[in-house]
Design a protein that fits this description.
homodimer; 303 residues; alpha/beta; Nucleotidyltransferase, domain 5; five-stranded mixed sheet; 13 strands
Chain lengths: 303, 303
């Protein structure tokens, strides 16, 4: 049996997982990202664990999913939420330490490759995965490969300007998709429609509970979100004509309250030549292990 | 020297060209598309000419650019402006007749491949070509290959909905990019801004003459067009992160009156990580031969 190491680097915690060919997570180890003031110390500790695991598993390679990870360069580049600044040559550092092949990608691209190799997109050649969470990201798969673009930073779906002069975005511009369809963007829509702030302790799923109780503003929030995201997905479809669009992330816990309006507005706005050809699906990656599965998929050949 | 045959099929006329490795058109022949009531008769005549030309040139293959041409199937599929209805298996018909390799693509995809193999995109791996004319089309090149999508119909940039509830489009929806940025769309903007219809006998270049004379509505028309197209191109760039975007077609004869506002609004709307990385360029394909060069590029390996 072949095994793959997947490392999910977050601003607070890092998870290292060992995944087998079937996509089963056989063990995980956790590290505190914040406690390493240099990437070298981080690679030393995580690398030692990999060397130890290698005595048990025949590892094919190490995949790393990280914010601002660049597949071309193997670097993390200027990630605002990590303790290490500038360009970090993570792939090289890990290969030097462990002698294993190492690849790096950003979270959304890893998630798309995870869907391709371990999830609902097995056998597909053209699809898009959209991550909804703190931000909105995407991985675009064309002919079985992730679209990286000239500089490695393709797939910034969350930064489509969908509303000229709309809500201010962290990127410094106005009206980006993620200001409306990230978890925070959805909550903001609810605030605008109801005049009430959602309890900050509550997750976005709470909006679905409110909708189930007939809360009008909650239902309208989902409709507004679906209208904006459905149109954006119809537009993206006209460019890459995918077989499916997978939705992934916390807001999907709202279930049909969220996905029904997305589907409705997607269908309504889709160019007729694509009608009934493009499925909107929910990611099949297990939520708790999606990030390490995505990372491990970077070093796994497709089925 | 290697030679390639390029066939440009239009609703009225068909041009067959012989192109050498340097992208020089060595001879052309013309056929009246309309005078053939069946595709079989058309292939018989054009095929006989190819067989004749083959005695002079060592032909590598035949590329065909046609409305609704599908690269995957080698068919023209339900093209509204051609005399032949339904699905026409053009590649198979030509190969049966001539024994030459034959590939089919739509006009915008052929133009993008023409730019890659004979034009300004030689050596590039990631770029987009945008055709402005009766409609607005595009060919998206990722890692040196044209993006065809699941069904062969990717690249419909002209049918991005850029203005919800905007101008009615031929596709049956509202607010598509091509209702604003096609030649007709630009003229309509001028009509809306000036209250005056452009002389239907005049080409779109006439608007540049008006602008040069200080016609305020003409200048505003270019600014509006640039605002809409510049934003759309910035959005598309966030998805595929190209090295360049080539603009192609009749409206480009308006020169800087058109391209300056496109560049201005593109730069203004571009996500900061792409700043100064993506060039807006005018196609280098010779206008009179672009369609046959594009078609011939379908059977030419890249440099």
């Amino acid at each position: 049996m072949k095994f793959y190491a997947g490392i999910d680097i977050g601003g607070t915690n890092t998870t290292l997982g060992i995944i087998n060919e079937k996509g089963e997570v056989v063990e995980t180890h956790h590290f505190s990202t914040r406690s390493y003031d240099t990437p070298e110390k981080f690679v030393e500790d995580v690398g030692n664990k990999l060397i130890e695991l290698r005595t048990t598993y025949s590892l094919e390679g190490v995949g790393i999913g990280a914010p601002n990870g660049n597949y071309y360069t193997g670097c993390i580049e200027f990630a605002p939420n990590l303790p290490w600044k500038g360009k970090i040559a993570l792939a090289v550092l890990f290969t030097q330490k462990t002698n294993l092949i190492c690849k790096v990608a950003n979270d959304a691209n890893s998630a798309a490759l995870g869907e391709l190799k371990f999830g609902g997109a097995m056998g597909m050649k053209n699809f898009i995965l959209v991550t909804l969470g703190t931000g909105v990201g995407s991985g675009i798969i064309v002919e079985g490969n992730i679209v990286l673009g000239h500089d490695g930073f393709a797939g910034e779906l969350g930064h489509l300007i969908v509303m000229p002069n709309g809500r201010p975005c962290g990127c410094g511009r106005l009206g980006c998709l993620e200001t409306y369809c990230s978890a925070g963007g959805i909550k903001k829509t609810y605030l605008e429609l109801s005049g009430k702030e959602l309890d900050p302790g509550k997750k976005i799923d709470y909006l679905a509970e409110l909708a189930a109780q007939g809360d009008k503003a909650a239902l309208e929030t989902f409709d507004t979100t679906g209208r904006i995201l459905g149109l954006a997905l119809a537009n993206v479809s006209a460019l890459t004509s995918p077989e499916a669009i997978f939705l992934f992330g916390g807001p999907l816990h709202c279930g049909k309250y969220l996905t029904d309006p997305i589907q409705e507005h997607f269908t309504k706005n889709l160019l007729s030549i694509y009608k009934d050809k493009i499925k909107i699906l929910t990611s099949l990656l297990p939520v708790n292990h999606s990030a390490i599965l995505g990372a491990a998929s970077l070093v796994k050949e497709p089925h």
